[in-house]
Input
Amino acid sequence: MTPPSSEPAPSASPPSLTEVESHGVDRIPDAERTATPLDLFRLAFGGANTFSTCVLGAFPILFGLSFWQGLAATLLGVFVGALILCPMAVFGPVNGTNNAVSSSAHLGVHGRVVGSFLSLLTAIAFFSISVWSSGDALVGGAHRLFGLSRGDLTYAVAYALFAGLVLAVCVYGFRFMLFVNKVAVASATVLFLLGAIAFAGDFDASYAGVFTDSADAATDALFWPSFIGAALIVLSNPVSFGAFLGDWSRYIPATTPRRRVVGAAFLSQIATLLPFVFGLATASIIASKAPEYVDPAAPDFVGGLLAISPTWFFLPVCLLALIGGMSTGTTSLYGTGLDFSSVFPRLSRVQATVLVGLLSIVFIFVGRFGLDLVQSISTFATMIITCTTPWMVVMMLGFYTRRGWYDPEALQVFNRRQRGGRYWFAHGWNWRGMTAWWVSALLGVLFTNIPGQFVGPLGDLANGIDIGLPLSLAVAAVLYLALLRLFPEPRAVYGPEGARLARTVEVAVPPITGPGTNAGEPAAVPSGSAVD
Output
């Protein structure tokens, strides 16, 4: 896993903020890789240092936990989620492209569409959460400050303006988004700390929740399902970045030490304890002073926060909603527009971004005003994460077994509408990785148990505890490694040092043919014998 040393250091200065990014998912030239691990930290932390994360931080209180129990669940979820997420940052510097394209090496040239589909659903879900929560906070704060009407038209205008701002930033591309997140990280952090001052007098760390010494047996029996469920909801936030880390880290030079890239991704999620704990603490205050806002059947964290806020904090709440929502929205939407342009090559990155943005805006308006999907968005997000996590496991284990070696040209076969290459496998599909993914994702869904929202057919087998995500993680790891041993992959997909934890077989690599190639030109394959 030694990083390449032959690539030159970046020589070009970063482009202007107002210069529209031209790159799609093609490999970023070495000279244009001017980003740093600190930039990755800013983007990943900025995308989570938001109002949406505060809403997720309130869930332990909604599940009946005390403040200290909720804090334990939050720490567990953030730490485990950060550990799962951080290895996904290395694909961008190594391959110079996004993670969906890198997945071609493990799922096949055509199998990479799985990552594109998962990132599209994740982006729509979290973009919607950011627009809804931020729009509601802006309108609520303006109502308390200026008496602004809170009718459907007001909300519609707020959603449209906010979504339009996010879309504009994404159209300009990576540099503009990085600038927005640099501002957002510092500003949102200051506003959260200001919020700590605003609520310090009302906060009581002894908030007991429902699992007290006087609770009946039926209530006590729900403690562990509630604790684990809260931790898994918190964990879903860092895991949701798995499909997007490569979108940002692809601008980091390949020679950057991988420990720094992984460390930046890990620390970016540890830093999200700031919004998580803010949400947890304010939710405990709401539960004490305005319990109607934390009714699990109809929770309204934004409304509750405004109800308990001192008047002078209304404006900071509005600013926090605007700044934080921009961070979440841009980090979600940018990567999906980028990847969508590779799935449909007739669309440029800008055209694909606009199309995905408009589709997301339609979803937001239909969900908010038509089908009342706001309550079920957490279920939607949880299900997506349950399906995304085993995909990440396949990617990370694949990276380890390949010793971090990839063929950049073979990764781009799908994007160029070509055929063949090292990652062609069976007609463009690597059934080993595909099988490990869909079997573990299906099991995760079947065992999911979200009380009051979704319970899978097998969700009650663990006494009400949601084991869907841990089970899908374990099954993906064991099944994928077993398939690599039982059904060896071609020797050519591994680097000069050979395979790790896997067997290989000598198989001829089909030549890359199609646009821009000579039909009879064979792919370059390193020599080497079968590895056991």
Remarks:
- The CA atoms of residues 468 and 511 lie 41 Å apart.
- The two ends are 19 Å apart (CA to CA).
- The chain has one domain: 38-505.
